[in-house]
Amino acid sequence: MTPPRHSLLDSIARRGAAARSMRLSLPPVDLRFAAALTGLVALGPLLTIAGAGWIRAEVERGTEALRAQGQARFESEGAERRAAMLFRDTVRRPTLSATLDRIARVLPDDARLASVTRAADGVLRIEITTNDPDPLRAALRRDPLFVAMRESAQRRTGDGRVVVTMRTLR
């Protein structure tokens, strides 16, 4: 009789046993090196994120300092500009005596000057008493200085005269 043939499982088991005996014996692996290398790889992005946050904070501090410096400079330049405009307007505006002379030349014969005031912002306020305000208005409209003036009030006095108050817009 013939010897029984080995089954497929028997031949696989024999080959596995032979392979185990032929295996090379390697020294044990030190896992500390692998752990250190893994830590370095993970630490790269973390350090990048932390460095970017630090740089961002520095840039924001610098930006705030520049913004504060620019704001102070802008405010001082604005104050200088407003002072220069006020000075320019004051110099260009005719003096009060020149204004009084022009009013005297323009007023009709029955009109009298009651008061003239000029505020700090340059607004001119004139009170004139007259019998009839219509010729007064027409006379003032003929002079370019008084064209911009508007009548702000009108009242009648006890003696029948009319007090007309006029003022410039600016």
TrEMBL record:
Q: Which organism is it from?
A: Sphingomonas suaedae
What is the organism lineage in this UniProt record? Answer: Bacteria, Pseudomonadati, Pseudomonadota, Alphaproteobacteria, Sphingomonadales
Q: Which UniProt keywords apply?
A: Membrane, Transmembrane, Transmembrane helix
Keyword Transmembrane included in the entry's annotation: yes
For this entry, the protein name equals Uncharacterized protein
Q: What are the transmembrane regions?
A: 33-55
